[in-house]
Specification:
The protein is mostly helical. The protein has a single domain, classed as Four Helix Bundle (Hemerythrin (Met), subunit A), CATH 1.20.120. It is about 70% helix and about 0% strand. Helix 5 packs across helix 7. The termini are far apart.
């Protein structure tokens, strides 16, 4: 999940939904479904398998981009699919962990509301001839929203949060670990989840602030 909206400002070629890169991107949805089945309906070793499925799910997010560049399959459709699948994976995972009681319901609510508002603003701005990252005119806004450091930090923290939440199920199953490990694992997990929510809000705020100028009316 480290490529958040990168494709929106890139160079594109002809679309091809059957390209290898797009097939890899869409395959992540199948892995997501299998992961959820294991997490919700399995026990013991099933949680262990789910943990490694999640690692594969996130790894393919980097693989599809690499394959697209190596096979010259970078295109508009691929960029849209990559962003859409990233959003689907992220949102469903937050909702699933809230449903299972691993995180408070307020966590997915905050992230979903922030995502809808920011995407709506970006969609409107694109209609005005700007790009999602090009709309950021202040130096602080560009750094918070589009800098490689902030995008990477948010992606890493978010990924670690999901992995830790899944690891808790592995620990509870006591297949490899004693359940006592939850005493120190739980605070760390909640710390990463809280940091993810904080970074999500921090990176969304400049978009809402700088999009205001597109709604200003100028007298004739």
């Amino acid at each position: 999940m480290l490529k958040e909206a990168n494709a929106a400002d890139g160079l594109f070629q002809q679309p091809a939904i059957a390209s290898m890169a797009n097939i890899i991107t869409l395959s992540r949805l199948g892995l997501l479904g299998l992961f959820l089945l294991l997490l919700c309906y399995s026990k013991g070793v099933g949680y262990f398998v789910a943990f490694f499925l999640l690692i594969l799910l996130f790894s393919l997010d980097a693989v599809d981009g690499y394959v697209a560049r190596k096979r010259h399959e970078v295109n508009r459709l691929g960029g849209v699919l990559d962003i859409a699948v990233d959003r689907i994976v992220e949102y469903i995972l937050w909702v699933a962990f809230a449903h299972l009681g691993s995180i408070p319901l307020v966590v997915p609510l905050i992230i979903l509301i922030r995502g809808v508002l920011v995407d709506a603003m970006r969609g409107f701005v694109v209609g005005q001839g700007e790009t999602p990252f090009g709309m950021m005119k202040t130096s602080w806004g560009r750094w918070v929203v589009s800098s490689y450091f902030m995008r990477s930090l948010y992606g890493v923290v978010k990924t670690v949060s999901f992995l830790l939440l899944t690891l808790e199920f592995v620990v509870r199953s006591q297949v490899l670990f004693d359940a006592g490990y939850l005493l120190w694992l739980r605070p760390i997990t909640l710390g990463f989840v809280g940091l993810t929510v904080f970074l999500c809000l921090v990176r969304g705020w400049p978009v809402l602030v700088e999009s205001r100028r597109f709604f200003k009316t100028h007298p004739k």
